TrEMBL record:
Entry-linked SUPFAM superfamilies: Creatinase/aminopeptidase (SSF55920), Creatinase/prolidase N-terminal domain (SSF53092)
Protein family membership: Belongs to the peptidase M24B family.
Protein's name according to its UniProt entry: Aminopeptidase P family protein
Source organism phylogeny: Bacteria, Bacillati, Bacillota, Clostridia, Lachnospirales
Domain Peptidase M24 C-terminal: 539-599
Length: 599
């Protein structure tokens, strides 16, 4: 079946490419700040090829086009690309070329590659320069060609900035600026250019609303040892923000003037920036003005290690959020097959429960509610017009979270609605074993997520099954649900950073099994790394759990569990029962007591 709308859009793009002398054109997912999730204005790739996942790059030539995405989206991409004429390239699969390899193979000597340099990160842009140099490829990055095709493109998002009570953050802006400037000095840099939105929100103790579910505002900053220049849209500036900026000697500038200002401001010495996050277009400006020092944003690691004020607030928020999840599981199990219920209506019920929690701001991402075979797609999203009806059989996977004044949550539970096969029970039990095994980890300081990943993944590998994503990611504090640099995965590729797990870092723990056409299972908690015993062998560490919701015993097969697995499950369920019962009514508490019984 031909998707004529997409084919027409690609034809229009090719006409614009030809007019501008561009042979190949590349469209990534990012906005001007290399954000993972982007506003509608930046969803050019989706507009041109129909793929709606949060990670993917479209490359368009005059006669062919390809879309590169990761294992979370293979099934979804295959469906959404049907009839578009765009070929799916499954990243990290055998015999699949990378984007650079594809361009090396396809482009002829002297041809031109085009892209909007504002939405391509510097590291990738420089790699393209190097990889394509032998073919004398010309790179043009100053034009957004899609803007000529997308005639009804939405406007840039613009919302007033929120300045919360600084007591929420445990540190004021002066303290954070001092820590960043100390890192700048250690790198010998007199200036620092920042464009990563959650880093900017963290540094200045503000929040925005320019990206769905991500409390960030489109902005840039340039710091010296004495000055802080902050660029954002005039419509976002409130009197409260003006007072906040004046208090901390922050100079406000219009967002659209950032590039022009950087081209003409006084710069002495070197400028520090993170090539993995700063856009290729801005890097070219900096490169022409000063020596550029490539280093991780100091804000990234400082932000990742939560202080005791943040952790105390998070613990309180997670108790209330977990209670909403418990109430939801009870409601689904009690009512499925008795009242009309769909993936979408179930998600709306959970979203409503969260909205009633004190300090609620928004969801932390659109709720994933996936029934039966749909759960095999890791980032499936049901809509009111396109969703499956729930029945008292099989399983419902629900991945959800909230933004609160006090924390950001992320939790997944796979809920048994009725009879499931023995194979599914064995798979579910393996996922539970892996999640609990990682929960129970004790490790030496210096370990990264690569050292720890096997604890979660081994029960799946024992069955010759793998899940095509990492096991865990950091979670922001009233910020983005995906945060670095910490992560738990068995391999790190591309721009993924590998850093030691530090005390105070939070991280998700979410192994899973996804069988296309059959079922998907994920169980996810959020944990915080803590320092344990320190002795002659070093600093030992462990994890504290933040998430408290039952693991569904209806899919647990005790016969494939060892004694230690059973002890871990019973211990976790005893804690769930203790912590959650005060938040539940009598009927819900009676259900939870049975749902967390010792096995």
């Amino acid at each position: 079946m031909v998707n004529q709308k997409i084919q027409d859009r690609l034809a229009a793009l090719r006409a614009v490419m030809k007019k501008n002398g561009v042979d190949w054109y590349m469209v990534p997912t990012a906005d001007f700040h290399n954000s993972e999730y982007v506003d509608a204005y930046f969803k050019v790739r989706e507009y041109l090829c129909n793929f709606s996942g949060s990670n993917g790059t479209l490359i368009v030539g005059m006669d062919e086009a390809g879309l590169w995405t990761d294992g979370r989206y293979f099934i979804q991409a295959e469906r959404e690309l049907t009839g578009t004429g765009v070929t799916l390239y499954r990243m990290l699969e055998d015999n699949v070329p990378t984007k650079e390899e594809f361009l090396q193979q396809k482009m002829e000597n002297g041809q031109t590659l085009g892209f909007d340099g504002r939405v391509v990160d510097t590291r990738f842009g420089l790699k393209l320069e190097k990889d394509l140099a032998d073919k004398q490829i010309k790179i043009v990055y100053g034009k957004d060609l899609a803007d000529e095709v997308w005639t009804d493109r939405p406007a840039l998002p613009c919302h007033p900035v929120l300045v919360p009570d600084e007591a929420l953050f445990g540190q004021n802006v002066s303290e954070k600026l001092a820590a960043v400037r100390k890192d700048m000095a250690a790198h010998g840099a007199s200036g620092l250019f920042l464009s990563k939105l959650d880093d900017l929100m963290w540094l200045l103790n503000i929040r925005g609303a320019d990206v769905e579910c991500n409390p960030v505002a489109l902005s840039y900053a340039y710091l010296t040892q004495d000055e802080c220049h902050f660029f954002l849209q005039d419509g976002e500036v409130t009197d409260v923000l003006k007072a906040h900026a004046a208090k901390y000697h922050i100079t406000l500038h219009p967002y659209e003037e950032a590039a022009e200002w950087m081209e003409s401001c006084a710069i002495t010495g070197s400028v520090m920036c993170d090539e993995g996050n700063v856009s290729y277009a801005f890097y070219k400006i900096l490169e022409n003005r000063a020596e550029v020092v490539d280093a991780a944003n100091p804000t990234e690691l400082l932000k990742a290690v939560k202080n005791e004020t943040e952790l105390a607030n998070m613990q309180e928020v997670y108790l209330k959020d977990s209670a909403a999840v418990c109430k939801f599981i009870y409601w689904v199990k009690k009512n499925v097959g008795k009242i009309p219920m769909t993936e979408y209506s179930a998600a709306m019920y959970l979203d409503h429960l969260r909205s009633e929690i004190d300090g609620y701001l928004d969801l932390s991402f659109p709720t994933i509610s996936a029934y039966g075979t749909n759960a095999a797609m890791m980032h499936y999203e049901a809509t009111e017009d396109n969703c499956a009806a729930l029945a008292p059989e099989g399983m419902l996977l629900v991945d959800s979270g909230g933004q609160y004044l006090g924390g950001t949550t992320d939790v997944t539970r796979t809920i048994v609605l009725g009879p499931v096969s023995q194979t599914i029970k064995e798979h579910y039990t393996a996922v539970a074993k892996g999640m609990l095994q990682l929960t129970d980890a004790k490790f030496l300081y210096g370990c990264t997520g690569r050292n720890l990943d096997i604890l979660a993944r081994q029960p799946m590998w024992d069955q010759n099954i793998d899940y095509k994503c990492g096991t865990g990611h950091g979670v922001g504090y009233i910020l983005n649900v995906h945060e670095g640099p910490q992560g738990i995965r068995w391999r790190f590729t591309g721009n993924q950073k590998e850093v030691p797990i530090e005390a105070g870092m939070d991280v998700t723990n979410e192994p899973g099994i996804y069988i296309e056409g059959s079922h998907g299972i994920r169980i996810e908690n959020v944990m915080v790394a803590r320092n344990g015993v320190k002795n002659g062998d070093g600093q030992f560490m462990y994890f504290d759990t933040l998430t408290w919701a039952p693991i569904d015993l209806d899919a647990i097969d005790v016969s494939v569990m060892e004694r230690k697995d059973i002890e871990r499950l019973n211990r976790y369920h005893a804690q769930v029962r203790e912590k959650m019962t005060p938040y539940l009514n009598e009927e819900e508490a009676a259900w939870l007591k049975e749902a967390t019984r010792a096995i």
